[in-house]
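Let's practice the habit of predicting before peeking. Look at the sequence and jot down your guess about where helices and strands might fall. Then scroll down.
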Amino acid sequence: MASTSKKWARDVYFVASRLYFLLILLQVPLFRFPCRIGTCTTPIEVSLSLLYANGVVPGGLVKALLYPGAIAKAIYKNNAIPSYGKLLEAYKFNNMKESPATHDLQNLEVIIGSYLSVAGALLGLMKSGRFSLTGILLITWGLDKQVLFRNYTSVVIYPTMLIALLSTFFSIRADVTKLIRFTKPKASQRNEHKQNITRVRYSS
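Done guessing? Here is the structure:
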């Protein structure tokens, strides 16, 4: 029973972590949020725009992380694939808006959540962890807070956020193992009950 649960948990973790990694890397829109480049729809845009604006990461690394998503967007929209050399211009990274410190403080959950989401997507390929789930929950709370308390109509959460949330939960191997172990006894008890009923019928 224990070995079977671990095998199932390993398989579920493998699929969920890869799915979440693709959601982040290919920049599948999860939300709409005003940021330094105008409007961000993915955690990777929020993270890289802030890191690049503060000089933490070089432009070469930014382009390397953005390019897979740029290709995916171009194919999905049937547009021409953008030039790698002009990728920063295409994403408006060279023409960022000045953002006051109060704006970043008001959106701290979204910012920190985006960092954790991107880091969790990369680390999840090697080891199970809770970075991704924590990041997605922080982003969701931060966006909900903007809508509920500040009535920001420009902030939107897309249905794809639910896919990201589920994939981050199932990418935590320990929790999946506990869930499988919790549900399996119930299934075995139902099978045993059916077998007992069958035996009673045959005996009668």
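How did you do? The CA atoms of residues 53 and 96 lie 8 Å apart.
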